[in-house]
Specification:
Elements lengths: L6 H4 L9 H7 L9 H8 L6 E4 L2 E4 L8 H4 L13 H10 L7 E4 L5 E3 H4 L19 E3 L2 E3 L7 H7 L4 E9 L11 E12 L8 H11 L6 E3 L18 H34 L9 E9 L2 E11 L2 E11 L1 H6 L5 E9 H9 L12 H4 L24 E8 L18 H12 L3 E11 L6 E9 L8 H19 L2 E2 L1
Parallel strand pairs: 3-7, 9-10
Antiparallel strand pairs: 1-2, 4-6, 5-6, 7-8, 8-13, 10-11, 11-12, 12-13, 14-16, 14-17, 15-16
Helix pairs in contact: 5-11, 8-9, 9-11, 13-14
This protein binds 3,4-dihydroxyphenylalanine (DAH).
Catalytic activity: tRNA(Phe) + L-phenylalanine + ATP = L-phenylalanyl-tRNA(Phe) + AMP + diphosphate + H(+)
InterPro entries: aa-tRNA-synth_II, aa-tRNA-synth_II/BPL/LPL, Fdx_antiC-bd, Fdx_antiC-bd_sf, Phe-tRNA-synth_IIc_mito, Phenylalanyl-tRNA_Synthase
EC number: 6.1.1.20
């Protein structure tokens, strides 16, 4: 997570038709974490003393902010459900990284410490990703991991091979639309070499030799930036230039091969399904400089897909401090993280992220047998398109001054608060929520917001009565939890 959101938002289609206002809402200021009392108030009536997740019991405290709808998804493990598109995508990625070098870890528990998720990776104390508006906390020191990087420090210490792949469910409080869901899956990989074990201690030479053994590909790669850059993408003091350059080159080829595998399969599937002529234009990708607290230099990889540049992963040369803290000061290498749903959405042409959680046979049956026969991969065929139903909710926030009580105050408000109320009230029956108007009263300074909620089930046509009921629950939830005044 470079900014408040990295790969999750990075994987979003650029300019995917969002309104300017919706985009505005995504730009969160650092340090916007609200006081714990806000959660105390919001959950005072219903906070359980303990929660059980995958058979273990955890005490909650006023930091607790995990709705039961999200808790109930912690046992689903879509990445391990045979023939589920998330699991198929995992398998395709695994096929590019041989298990002899990259040990696979697919069963790590989603509950991790705040330390593992943030501190161990060098996230500063005021990093916006730590805010309770963005992250699901069980208590102050325990949370639902927001990324698979949470396991990096531990694996740098304990993994017996020179690399690994992790796949796992990750959790983020986020907006509601067709490409965001509070639970999704990531895959993380790393590869490292040990200066004390390579011939003549020449790490760069050993890495380049390994690079020479990797296959080549026919993609067009744009890579305009230098291997490192003093201000924008610095070399670490622990690394020689030749080392960093070699590690960066091995990283880039490895990840290009992964992307090549995914997109070649996506293209083949589309051709088979549509009988279209195979595309003879080579795939095009580009490397873009990036920032992550736990790598330097860092990059994102973008793929040219249907006329757009899509960011699909984050990566870089691992911060040496992580290896040093792991008791392995001689290890040097790279790491990456990729979101599986976004890749699966492209691979299978799945139009809405909620579908991954569907237990409907019309969805699941379309992928049966594919995991063992990847050549049978075909695009998903939508089984229905039910009508949307838009409803607006407009409300005044409370006063932003401390005397105003804080709850529902403009300074405290975060659009993820509304998202959670909507999910609680309507579950997966909401396709997206957009801020359509905001207004500050010129005299009183009070702030008013209007959100448009699109009620649409993937599985059936909603009746008017049930849509009205759900919307009423949203309105009541807003008033009860955040003390807003409905307009
Ligand atoms: N954890 C990052 C995220 O979720 C992705 C990532 C970036 C993982 C760089 C890495 C890495 O291992 O080296 O946004």
């Amino acid at each position: 997570m470079a900014g408040p959101r990295c790969v999750a938002s990075a994987l979003r289609l650029r300019a995917a038709g969002r309104s300017g206002l919706a985009l505005l809402l995504q730009q969160r200021s650092p340090g916007s974490a609200s006081p714990a009392r806000r959660w105390q108030a919001a959950y005072s009536s219903g906070r359980p003393k303990t929660v059980e997740i995958n058979g273990k019991t955890y005490p909650t405290d006023p930091w607790f902010n995990v709705p039961s709808s999200v808790l109930s998804l912690t046992s689903r493990k879509l990445h391990l459900q045979k023939d589920h598109p998330v699991s198929i995508t995992r398998k395709i990625i695994e096929s590019v990284f041989p298990a002899s070098t990259y040990r696979y870890y697919n069963t790590f528990d989603p509950v991790v410490s705040t330390y593992e998720n943030f501190d161990s990776l060098g996230f500063p104390p005021d990093h916006p990703g730590r805010a309770r508006t963005d992250t699901y906390y069980i208590n102050e020191s325990t949370l639902l991991r927001t990324h698979t990087s949470a396991h990096e420090a531990e694996l740098f210490r304990s993994n017996p091979t020179g690399g690994y792949l992790i796949s796992a469910d990750v959790y983020r409080r986020d907006e509601i639309d067709r490409s965001h869901y509070p639970v999704f899956h990531q895959m993380e990989g790393a590869r490292y070499w040990d200066r004390s074990k390579v011939p003549h201690g020449d790490l760069a030479a050993a890495v380049l030799e390994d690079l020479g053994r990797l296959p080549r590909h026919d993609m067009t790669v744009q890579d305009p930036s230098p291997p490192f850059h003093a201000e924008r993408n610095p070399l670490q003091p622990h690394h020689g230039p030749a080392e960093a350059e070699a590690v960066g080159a091995h990283l880039k080829r490895s990840l290009e091969l992964m992307v090549h595998e995914i997109f070649t399969r996506a293209r083949k599937a589309a051709v088979l399904a549509e009988g279209a002529a195979p595309q003879d234009k080579p795939l095009e990708v580009r490397w873009v400089e990036a920032y992550f607290p736990f790598t330097s230099p860092s990059w994102e990889l973008e793929v040219h897909y249907q006329g757009d540049w899509l960011e699909i992963l984050g990566c870089g040369v691992s911060q040496q401090s992580l290896h040093i803290h792991a008791g392995k000061p001689d290890q040097v290498g790279w790491a990456f993280g990729i979101g599986l749903e976004r890749v699966a959405m492209l691979l299978f042409q799945i139009p809405d992220i909620r579908l991954f959680w569907s237990q409907d046979e019309r969805f699941l049956s379309q992928f049966r047998g594919v995991e063992d026969h990847l050549d049978r991969l075909r695009p998903f065929e939508p089984f229905s398109k039910h009508p949307p139903c838009y409803k607006d909710v407009s409300f005044w926030l409370g006063s932003s001054s401390a005397a105003g009580g804080g709850l529902g105050g403009a300074a405290d408000w975060h659009d993820n608060d509304l998202m959670e109320v909507v999910r609680d009230a309507a579950g997966d029956c909401v396709e997206d929520v957009q801020l359509v108007d905001r207004f500050t009263h010129p005299k009183t300074g009070r702030k008013s917001l209007c959100y448009r909620i699109n009620y649409r089930s993937l599985e059936r046509t909603l009746t008017n009565a049930e849509t009205n009921e759900m919307h009423q629950r949203v309105v009541d939830g807003l008033v009860k939890r955040f003390g807003v005044e409905i307009r």
